[in-house]
Specification:
Strand order of the largest sheet of chain A: 1-3-2
Distance between the termini of chain A: 50 Å
Largest sheet of chain A: 3 strands, antiparallel
Oligomer: homodimer
Largest interface: A-B, 29 and 29 residues
Number of helices of chain A: 5
Number of strands of chain A: 3
Helix content of chain A: over 70%
Shape of chain A: elongated
Structural class of chain A: alpha+beta
Chain lengths: ~100, ~100
DNA sequence: AGTCTACGTAAGTTGTAGCTTACCGTTCGT
DNA sequence: ACGAACGGTAAGCTACAACTTACGTAGACT
């Protein structure tokens, strides 16, 4: 799965948004969400695989936090889409003006 | 479904990325993708509902193009996440320095 | 060593997202 | 008016994603 697909799931996005505010443990996240702790673990695994979060041990707990590089990568992707859309639009306008001359 | 969820599906993202380059008709899109034309129609319906694309009639065809406002909204969402992540990080650093004084 | 806490993983269930085929409406051309 | 092109929608199927419970494992504390 890729980054956008990972954030496509509502529960996973809820987890991710909470981690944006501050690092959290798995059980802590599960306590604030309407799903079980293992479900949170599975979602965190996906988020970790796509590079959106990182984890570190803290005693028996495991603290997760967002990986800024993941957010940055998403922003870069959308920026590229944005640029391409603008370029296509400009080209369309230019072409329309060309046809305007001919008619 | 929301915007991020809509772009979470690979097929839907493939459709969207092609529309970023230039406006296209439904059958034209289906011809370039490994799914049937009705499937493309259904995906376009979703993309339209979340405001990522707009359509206009062109004879018997129907041309779809991206709605720049949708891309902009996604960018704004990620920018907000980005800012919150940075703020949280700065606060964490500040707190760490506070504790450094005490010890 | 024993126990408790916190977490990951395996196994199994279920809703649903995505796909297909079939059908119908609309628009253009002849 | 008739046929063809194009596309939306309904109905049904299926694979899978998300969830649960149950179990195993690692660390901290006494």
């Amino acid at each position: 799965m890729d980054r956008l697909g990972a954030l496509g799931d509502p529960t996973r996005r809820a987890i991710f948004e909470r981690l944006v505010t501050r690092p959290m443990a798995v059980g802590e996240l599960a306590g604030e969400l309407p799903v079980s702790r293992p479900a949170v673990s599975q979602h965190l695994k996906v988020l970790k695989e796509v590079g959106l979060v990182v984890d570190r041990a803290d005693g028996t707990r495991r603290l997760y936090r967002v990986d800024p590089r993941g957010v940055q990568a998403l922003r870069a992707y959308l920026d590229e889409l944005w640029d391409r859309a603008l370029a296509a639009f400009a080209q369309a306008v230019e072409r329309a003006e060309e046809e305007g001359k001919q008619s």
